[in-house]
Write a sequence for this structure.
């Protein structure tokens, strides 16, 4: 991920992993995105800031939801700490982006808290069934 991220040319200072709800974190015992973010930040000399964004609403798994349901499911799910993001260029990191609903909602929270520029990056991009016909 690091070489590909370097090639984007994005100017950011902080990597913020998409947070899990407290309930889901307890179930799993860790946040897989945070585990990806830490070494990525270290390699790029960026700051990994997992506390800059909190999930303030427990949401159901998005796996079986369509795009409209996903957007509604994550609406208002995040709150960002202005002390950590105001005036900063930040990168949201997620493991998989499907419709973009989660990173879009996270970006809204970060911009509301004063982030200057928000980028989103993921380990994988899921394709809709209709997109598979184009391959």
């Amino acid at each position: 991920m690091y070489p590909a991220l370097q090639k984007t040319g994005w100017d950011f200072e902080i990597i913020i992993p998409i947070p899990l709800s407290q309930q889901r974190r307890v179930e799993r015992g860790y946040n897989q995105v945070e585990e990806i973010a830490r070494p990525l930040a270290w390699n790029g000399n960026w700051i990994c800031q997992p506390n800059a964004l909190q999930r303030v609403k427990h949401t159901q798994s998005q796996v079986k939801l369509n795009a409209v349901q996903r957007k509604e499911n994550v609406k208002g799910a995040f709150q960002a700490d202005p002390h950590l993001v105001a005036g900063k260029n930040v990168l949201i990191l997620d493991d998989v982006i499907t419709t973009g609903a989660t990173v879009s909602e996270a970006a809204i929270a970060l911009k509301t808290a004063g982030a200057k520029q928000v980028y989103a990056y993921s380990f994988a991009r899921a394709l809709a069934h209709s997109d598979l016909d184009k391959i």
